[in-house]
Amino acid sequence: MERTDAGHERPGNPPHPVFRTRLIRRLSALAETVRVVVIAAAAGYGKTLAVEQWIRSGAANAARFRFTDPDNAPRIFIRRLAETLDEPGPPESLAPDAALAGLLDRTLIIDDAHLIRPGPVADLLDGIIARAMPGHRLVLVGRSRPVLRLGRLSGAGGLAEFGAAQLAFDHEETAAFLRSVGVPPSEALVEAVLRRTEGWAAGLRLAATAVAEQADPVAVADRFGGHDRHVAEYFRDEVLRDVSPSEVQCLQRCAVLARMSGELCDEVLGVTGSQAWLDTMHRQGLFMSTSDGGDGWYRFHPLFAETLLARLRREEPEREPHLRGRAAGWLEKHRLPENAVAQAIVGRDLHTAARMVSTYGHDLLNTGRVHVVREWLLALRNVVEHHRPLALTAAWTEAFCGNPAGALRALHAAGRTSAAGEPAVPTARLAIVRAAFAVDGVEQMSTDAGFGLDLEPPGGAWYPLAAAFFGIGHLLVGEPRPAVRGLERAVHLGGEQQPAVAALALAELSMLALERDDRFVSDSCVNEAWELVGDAGLQDNVFTVLVHVAAGRLAAVDGDEPAARRHVSAAMRLYASPSPAAFPWLAVQANLGLARILLTLGETPDVDRRLAEARRHLARLSTAGVLDRELAALAAEAESRRSAHAGTARPSGYVGVALTAAELRVLKSLRTHMTLGEIASELQLSRNTIKTQVASVYRKLDATTRTEAVRCGRSLGLLD
């Protein structure tokens, strides 16, 4: 095993507890063309153990040599290598390259190869590699990639490299290791240990010791970290002892960063040249790995980062807020708001954090990152009441999480009078959110949203929201012409900035088209909505519930019962969580749409449950527009279906099929003295379409005249 202090080696641990089957298979399966194998990772990754197991598994004719610093002198290296191989030393007169070549007739494993310095020994090994005979292989094991010229081998298939990612224990190996040291490996414990150690072998040993014989080992594993005394001692003795004090100080200060680049470290440390320093630290095996974000980005192993951060807080406690403040500024400037907000929050710069969350939170909500924004708001919960822009973001976030009470509280905080020096909230945005929540009923929605349309710039992020709720407000009071205009504008301008609300608008347009029997437009709108949902990761967004309803209605009309049921199931999942409760009009629409689908599928008991839910949310609206009449029509249809199923006589005013929203609008117009042509003009439909819808209304209401249809509609509660 790799060297560890007595304080780090745990009594009772078997020397080779887990055979690394996966890793050994890969090593043993290397092609004959591979002349050099590099096994490089930081201390404690089990490199020595892996090589021992590889040799024992049958790696033929392999010799092993541990490199030391004096071996950088060619004669010393050759003499010691000959002694290790139990070979007579070559004559002093023999050139070093010839002497070395004479010794290498087998696979040679060089441990601690990171100690090889640029110079004559490195040149000797480069020459040997270039002239290697078939069957000869050099295995270089160390804490970092050796300084040899290996680049030319990569393209020719002559090089195989195994790093920390390949040496890390996987789930099965971690479970086997815990079992071998007497710790029962439950699924939750294995996941917790892997999450904290990332498969680092020495970390597994330390974690196993920490959780052994604990009443709640999973909780202990979740808390296991760089603050653990044994972890801190390991990093001090095995890693940081070989690093200069000034570099240790820089590492500690960089530990405030989740990810590091040269430019970011320059800003945080107040220096230049950090990229070269980071690259060097990475090559030296200092528990750093490459990170997402492009070339030159690194991150620390989490346990190493926690150890460094604990040292920083102990040695320079006043410096952390300053470092995090500089990091937050750089990250925001370079369009990395999530990282910037995290730095501001941890650095306790709550005013800056509140400004950032209110600036960038909405963008994250619209791309499915609701949980991120809610975590920020939880950290800033004592600030929300005193920061109006943040309160508005909180209102929208709580609505997306299905918390209507929290959404309305935050909206109230956003709308209060500003204190002196406090950032203001644009009144247009307040009006848009009031429209979304239908605070004053559906009949006020279009007015509130229209106010936002007048004041928000068409290219702004809030404009598509205003357009969508303007259209929905008109739709819910039976005014399809302005409804379509608003919804189409929301789709046109919101696809990139507001994909969630654009998908909602498309679902509304699809159902409108379905009611006027325009299947092509209805299908197109649903398909476009699904593209937005998929591209933006909105599968769990509350507005997606109506996309499922629209798709389910199309499937039901087509007789595709399996697809209809899938969409009903998906919509019900979203209805339960996150729930559209903060948008009561949406909750009513979703339930009525689901009831229509279920009615088509013959699921009358489920229809009743959906109608009961619709009534519950309808009661929260001060004005309901056409929603109450649609609910009454569906309730009458459900009752008629039950009566027919029970074999009872059809009641007077029997509604054979529930009236669609379009048919309800036509029925409402039949109360007036307008001609069919005037009704068609008012509803922006062709005269033929109106005639078709009137005929459908007569048939469903069992009426033969306009007067009978209106009377029947009133008796059923479809008309005021």
UniProtKB/TrEMBL annotation:
<dbReference type="GO" id="GO:0006355">
    <property type="term" value="P:regulation of DNA-templated transcription"/>
</dbReference>
<dbReference type="Pfam" id="PF00196">
    <property type="entry name" value="GerE"/>
</dbReference>
<dbReference type="GO" id="GO:0003677">
    <property type="term" value="F:DNA binding"/>
</dbReference>
<dbReference type="InterPro" id="IPR036388">
    <property type="entry name" value="WH-like_DNA-bd_sf"/>
</dbReference>
<dbReference type="InterPro" id="IPR000792">
    <property type="entry name" value="Tscrpt_reg_LuxR_C"/>
</dbReference>
<feature type="domain" description="HTH luxR-type">
    <location>
        <begin position="652"/>
        <end position="717"/>
    </location>
</feature>
<protein>
    <submittedName>
        <fullName>Helix-turn-helix transcriptional regulator</fullName>
    </submittedName>
</protein>
<keyword id="KW-0804">Transcription</keyword>
<dbReference type="InterPro" id="IPR059106">
    <property type="entry name" value="WHD_MalT"/>
</dbReference>
<dbReference type="Pfam" id="PF25873">
    <property type="entry name" value="WHD_MalT"/>
</dbReference>
<dbReference type="InterPro" id="IPR016032">
    <property type="entry name" value="Sig_transdc_resp-reg_C-effctor"/>
</dbReference>
<keyword id="KW-0805">Transcription regulation</keyword>
<keyword id="KW-0238">DNA-binding</keyword>
